[in-house]
Structures are given as structure tokens and as C-alpha cells.
Amino acid sequence: MPPALTPRQKRRTLDLAIALAIVSVAFALAGLVWRMAGHAGTGAVTVPSEGRARPSAVGDLGPLLSWAPFGQAAVGEATQKTGIQAELKGLIFTVPVEQAVAFVATGSEPARAYHVGDALAGLRIEGIQRDRILLNNGGRIEYLGFPDPAALTGTPAAPSGDTAPAASYTPMSSTPPPPAPAPAASALIDRLGATQVPGGYAIGANAPPGMQAGDVVQSINGVALSDPAAADAALAGAGNGPAQITILRDGKPITVTVPIR
């Protein structure tokens, strides 16, 4: 029976085994990189003669790049608003974006659901973000956002150039007009046919685009709808612009972006 190893000998044996394992893994990785670079079977590294560099053979990296180990390239940020006659009514933003849904109305048609890759008025939908959708117009990325709240409230039309000036006028105030007040929670709840339930308000039959009857609205821009006073505060904070609304559908929370008006 061989003598038992001392603690010091055990440590040295373990260190030697780890070093051999590291060296074997390094050789294996070097061989893998060598084969990926297209040098498998060459047997040696050849130095070009006559002082002239020669291109080395490179293997087909298409299958490796198709795995997208570093993720897919993001769609460029759109800076130009699209000119198509369409109105964004609502959207459901999800990750991954392939499951996101945008509700868009074109012309006199009612709003319908669109996904990434669908065609909208001849333009391909490249992406769906929290407050807009990205469209590919002949290689140029444009965006379609929610309508401007100021345009929805309506502004008095400016007089045309053919109209004769009035004899007297009232000087315009330098103070901008106050924004249109946000709708009261009670009016919005009545319009949606919602009823208060534990955790929020359940949407009735008049669900807006992006919502369904039975959805429970839990919060608006992060403000919980625990009671009517909290609902009024949440709507006042959201104003007339797009708001991120968290709803509960089939037991799962979903974030929907819709304009408050």
C-alpha cells in the first residue's frame, strides 16, 4: 500500500492537475479558432515570400454570424415625421418587440392592429416603440406618433391675406393660453363603461384601441387607481398627451400607451 500523501503534496498534485487542464483547454480553443479561420488541414503557418502580403483564406462565417451572438442591430432613430394619412390610436409595447401591437386608423377606416413587418399605406413597419411606430419609406426611416394634443383641442384659424384689416383690434397678450383641462376621471370612466373593482377599474364594452372589455386599469403613468380621488390625480398628471397605462388582462400585467383626451 503506497504511503499517504502529505497535505503539501496534495496541494502540489491539485495545482499540477489544474495547470494541465488549463493547458488542454487552451490548446482546444486554439484549434477551434484555427479551424474557424479556414486553416484546417494546412498543417503549418506559411510566411509569404518576396515581401508581398498574400490574403489568407477565410472560412465562411455566415452560419456563425447568423446566431447573432451580440444581438441584432437596432433600427435607427427616426427624425422625420411620416406624411401618410394615418392616425396612431394606441399601442401595446412589449419585449420582444415582435409581439408589440399598434392600432392605426387610415382615412375613414376604423383602427386596426398592426405588427412589426406589416405594411401600412405602402410602408413597412420596422419597429414599435413606447410612443410611436417606425416606418421604412424607401430606405428612409420615418415615424408616426400620437396626434398633437394642441391640435386635438382646436385653435382659431388665422385670417387669410385677402381679408381687410379691421379698424380696431385688441392687443394680443404675451401670456400663452392655458392648456385644455384633462378630462375628469368620472367622465372618462362613464365613457368607457368602467366599474371600480379591487385594484383598479374594469373596462366595459366601450374599450378604446389597445384595450379589451374586462381589462382592469391599475395605474396611469405609475399612479395607482385605488379610488376616484387617485384616478383624478392620475389623469391630471397625464394631461392630454399619451399616457402609459398598466392593465391586468387574464392575470398578466400589460403596459398600453394611449392618448388621454
From TrEMBL:
Low complexity composition bias: residue spans: 163-173
GO CC, any one term: plasma membrane
Segments crossing the lipid bilayer: 12-34
Pfam families attached to this UniProt entry: T2SSC
Domain of life: Bacteria
Keyword Phosphoprotein: no
GO biological process: protein transport
Keyword entries, A-Z: Cell inner membrane, Cell membrane, Membrane, Protein transport, Transmembrane, Transmembrane helix, Transport
InterPro entries reported for this sequence: PDZ_sf, T2SS_GspC_N
Subcellular location, record wording: Cell inner membrane
Chief site of localization: membrane
Domain Type II secretion system protein GspC N-terminal: 20-144
Stretch list, region Disordered: 154-185
Protein name: Signaling protein
Organism: Sphingomonas desiccabilis
Taxon lineage: Bacteria, Pseudomonadati, Pseudomonadota, Alphaproteobacteria, Sphingomonadales
